[in-house]
Specification:
heterodimer, A: Rossmann fold, four-stranded antiparallel sheet, B: mainly alpha, two-stranded antiparallel ribbon
Chain lengths: 267, 231
């Protein structure tokens, strides 16, 4: 049981050049998989393929296969996949789509669509609000939030769907360090305590180093490195792929260059 | 409906008085004034066109150049303006006292489909969102040296570079929002969970039926000529 991308190659509709080439990844329950790469490397496209939106909803040409718990996404309805795979897009403000007048109702929008019993909708909504410390803004208009708040609300809306997997495209891009830590902790807890499988695309390698079990590096649509987080994020080749190493790695290297002994560990 | 269906002065006048009383009672009179101002242009045009151009009217009151104001035209103009005013006031009262989300919630509870309710809610929310986006684009262009203020010509020129980004960004957003809706199970089958039920007392239900049947009755009476005695 997992999301498996098996040799996936994908080109957007109207283009012939693939954005992803032969990508194979496995998002397992209870594990956090980080994906890192330079701008335009194919990270967001990878997210769209992993949740079935590409090519099912937006078209394009895909070869290879994506399966969610054994079901191929190619033939599945997106609303069915949405119950199993929650996705957070890069533009969080456009993800607040319900037209609801308050943050609370925005978060409840997904569970309501699933026709869950009233009490279940309320329970899930409050659980997501508590998880991301949004209690102070539950009555605010979702379209009058700061970028960071909107990002947290969008993530809460995904969590409220209660998916078995989370696919998150730069979920902390607009967050301050505190917000980033909160998201990291929430995702790690979701994986550890409820067995959610997480795919997180991020530029913040410090966050990945802290919370990911595995990290994959994508460059020009291809996975160029994949393995345990500490191993991949400690790679000397990271800058060559347009990725900044975690601060601890940079510090260790700087210390090494200055002749100081930093030891083996870097996190 | 009553204001338009029943001929003469009485029906539109009664409707207008009742609506104005409700506007005052609901405490929204100050917020009602902009609605009134928005109707003013239409009311003036109705008055001018009917008073001066009423077909076949010969009872001239006074003349302005080649145009003759007639008594028949003035009466018809006043009645038409009264009807429009009564209608506009009832629409304003509805808009000022009913929250869209509560209306949509209740309609959904009564069986309105999720798509229809979403369209209503989104359509109402689109105008402020587009206004906000237009402001952002204008500010962005102004910061890059585009003159969007000053005389009429400068303002018109400023609209051209605004239109492109506004339309394009809105279209791009449609795709992103469609994906987001899909991802939040909007297309799932079944009836959406209704979050809250609004109080609907027996008296409220009785009043609604009374208004509905009363309207039908008045229209029927008008059609049967039973209200001809009304001024």
């Amino acid at each position: 049981m997992s999301i498996i991308l098996d040799d996936v190659t994908y080109a957007y509709a109207g283009t012939s050049k693939p954005v992803l080439r032969g990508v194979s990844l496995n998002i397992e329950p209870g594990k956090v998989l980080g994906v890192v790469g330079a701008n335009g490397a194919g990270k967001s496209t990878l997210c769209l393929c992993a949740v079935g939106i590409a090519p099912v909803a937006i078209g394009g040409k895909m070869s290879g296969q994506v399966t969610v718990d054994g079901t191929t996404t190619a033939g599945a309805a997106i609303h069915e996949l949405a119950q199993r795979v929650g996705v957070l897009f890069q533009e969080s403000q456009t993800q607040l789509v319900s037209g609801a007048p308050s943050v609370w109702e925005e978060i409840a929008f997904g569970p309501r669509n699933l026709s869950l019993p009233h009490d279940e909708v309320v329970t899930r909504t409050w659980a997501a609000i508590d998880a991301l410390s949004l209690v102070d803004i539950v009555e605010r208009d979702p379209h009058r939030l700061s970028g960071g708040q909107a990002q947290l609300v969008a993530l809460a809306a995904v969590l409220a769907l209660g998916p078995r997997y989370l696919v998150l495209d730069e979920p902390t891009s607009q967050l301050d360090p505190l917000g980033t830590k909160l998201v990291g902790r929430t995702l790690a807890r979701a994986a550890r305590e409820t067995g959610v499988g997480v795919l997180i695309v991020e530029h913040k390698t410090d966050l990945l180093a802290q919370h990911c079990d595995e990290v994959a590096v994508i460059s020009a649509g291809t996975i160029v490195a994949h393995g345990p987080a500490m191993e991949v994020l400690g790679s000397e080749s990271l800058p060559d792929w347009g990725v900044a190493p975690p601060a601890a790695v940079s510090l260790r290297r700087a210390a090494g260059a200055a002749g100081l002994d930093w030891g083996e560990a870097w996190t | 409906m009553i204001a338009f269906a029943v001929r003469g002065w009485t029906a539109p006048l009664v409707v207008l008085v009742v609506m104005l009383a409700l506007v005052v009672w609901a405490g929204v009179f100050r917020r009602y004034l902009p609605y009134l101002a928005a109707t003013a242009l239409l009311l003036v045009s109705i008055m001018l066109v009917n008073t001066f151009l009423y077909p076949d009217a010969t009872d001239v009151l006074f003349s302005v150049g080649p145009f003759n104001a007639t008594g028949t035209g003035l009466t018809a103009a006043s009645q038409a303006a009264l009807r429009v005013l009564a209608f506009a006031t009832s629409v304003a009262l509805f808009a000022l006292t009913t929250r869209t989300d509560e209306l949509v919630d209740d309609l959904e509870r009564r069986g309105l489909g999720r798509r229809a309710s979403f369209i209503i809610q989104t359509a109402i929310g689109t105008v402020p969102r587009l206004t906000e986006r237009a402001r952002e684009i204008t500010e962005s262009q102004r910061s890059r040296g585009l003159n969007t203020e000053g005389g009429l010509l400068a303002r018109v020129r400023g609209l051209v570079p605004l239109a492109g980004p506004l339309v394009l960004s809105s279209l791009t957003e449609v795709e992103q929002r469609t994906m987001a809706l899909e991802a939040r199970a909007f297309t799932a089958p079944g009836k959406r969970t209704v979050l809250r039920a609004y109080p609907d007392s027996g008296a409220q239900r009785a009043l609604r039926w009374l208004l509905f049947l009363g309207t039908i009755g008045l229209v029927a009476a008008e059609l049967a000529g039973l209200l001809a005695w009304l001024p």
